[in-house]
Amino acid sequence: MGRSCCSAFVFPRSIMLFMLFTLCLHIHMIEKVHAEVVKGINGLDKFVLREARGSSAEIYLYGAHVTSWKNACGEELLLLGSKAIFEPPKPIRGGIPICFPQFSNHGPLDSHGFARNRVWSIDSNPPPFPTSSASKTFVDLILKPSEDDLKIWPNRFEFRLRIALGPGGELTMTSRIRNTNTDGKPFTFTFAYHTYYSVSNISEVRVEGLKTLNYLDNLQNETRITEQRNAITFQSEVDRIYLSTPTNISVLDNGKNRTYVIHKDGLPDTVLWNPWAKAVADLGVDDYKHMVCVEAAAVEKPITLNPGEDWRGSQEISTVPSSPCSGLPLPRKVLGN
Predict the structure, then answer these.
(1) CA gap 306, 64 in Å, rounded
(2) Smallest Cα–Cα separation from 145: which of 198, 181, 106, 91?
(3) Which terminus of the chain has a lower count of CB atoms within 10 Å, N or C?
(4) Are 105 and 132 in contact (CB under 8 A)?
(5) For residue 48, how many C-alpha atoms fall within 13 Å in the half-sphere facing its CB?
(6) What backbone phi and psi angles, to 5 degrees, belong to 46?
(7) CA 207 to CA 205: how far, in whole Å?
(8) Are strands 248-253 and 258-265 parallel, antiparallel or unpaired?
């Protein structure tokens, strides 16, 4: 069995009680300062979330962009492009970009829309966010269209986003989008959490939970194909939109003995992408070897909102680790609805 983050020792009862009291006091102090705004790269503001057990996340207000998510052992779970540029209006490559109001080229806007290259505001008075976690470690952000945005996409909206760290280190992103048009006009959009998972080597990765599902293969002009494999592995470029996917999907990384578990709600599709050796702006030559994008999305059937209507979509991502962090064996599957 693998080693844990900390070695185990046997202490006298009095020492154990003192250590427990100190730990509880330390956790209480941490919970008081579980989030803060600091300066990031090129002076851009970022929010740092720290959960009491040691996990953390960093979110730039530019793009509401999660650029880092670490477990309690301090291991980075997302890949940030080694050539990522932190210079607006250039979008940040890697982490978790938000694609809204358009995914990729599924519409008239620039690829992936404009939410990822706008400066969001901290939402000081958010509506209630029903979530599965009781975490107190979160930040609420909001985006409203500018006059320039209305020129390219003439719809008024409120996009509220909560990013939370749970007690087990899980990262939850909950989006609420409201149509605030005053002219009675509905609007339609597509959406994705464009998540770049950090992996040991793409050749060691398999994605489970998609067998028998149809997908659109973007490398074959969106040809509709039925997945036949129990697990998708990678030997070349992959760019697919799987349709009507299950609530839970697992990404197994044999090299790191780690399984990512993706739980999504309100997002029926799953995008699977690795560019392989194809040149991609802001990615280093070898970045593709250490990443896989598995994206909770709504692409095939765009979402339509009438004025006053809301849409909600969320993803919770967590890990099931083995050595060196917990010593637990790697599960064969972490699936189910």
Answers:
(1) 25
(2) 181
(3) C
(4) no
(5) 11
(6) -140, 150
(7) 7
(8) antiparallel
The tokens for 230 are 């129990």
What pTM was estimated for this model as a whole? 0.86
Q: Parallel, antiparallel, or unpaired for β 310-321 and 171-179?
A: antiparallel
Structural tokens at position 131: 């979530």
- Name 321's Cβ contacts closer than 8 Å, sequence gap at least 6: 71, 73, 257, 258, 328
Q: Tell me how far apart the alpha carbons of residues 110 and 112 are, in angstroms, rounded to a whole number.
A: 6
Q: Which residue stretches of the chain are H helix?
A: 13-32, 147-152
Contact yes or no for 135/148 (Cβ under 8 A): no
In degrees and rounded to multiples of 5, residue 99 shows phi and psi of -95, 110
Per-residue pLDDT of the chain (337 residues; tens, 9 = 90+): 444 443 333 434 444 343 333 333 333 333 434 778 999 999 999 999 999 999 999 999 999 999 999 999 999 999 999 999 999 999 999 999 999 999 998 888 999 999 999 999 999 888 887 655 566 799 999 999 999 999 999 999 999 999 999 999 999 999 999 999 999 999 999 999 999 999 999 999 999 999 999 999 999 999 999 999 999 999 999 999 999 999 999 999 999 999 999 999 999 999 999 999 999 989 999 999 999 999 999 999 999 999 999 999 999 999 996 544 444 444 444 444 4
Tokens of 15: 């020492």
Q: What are the angstrom distances between the C-alpha of 83 and each of 41, 50, 69, 152, 334?
A: 13, 26, 19, 29, 33
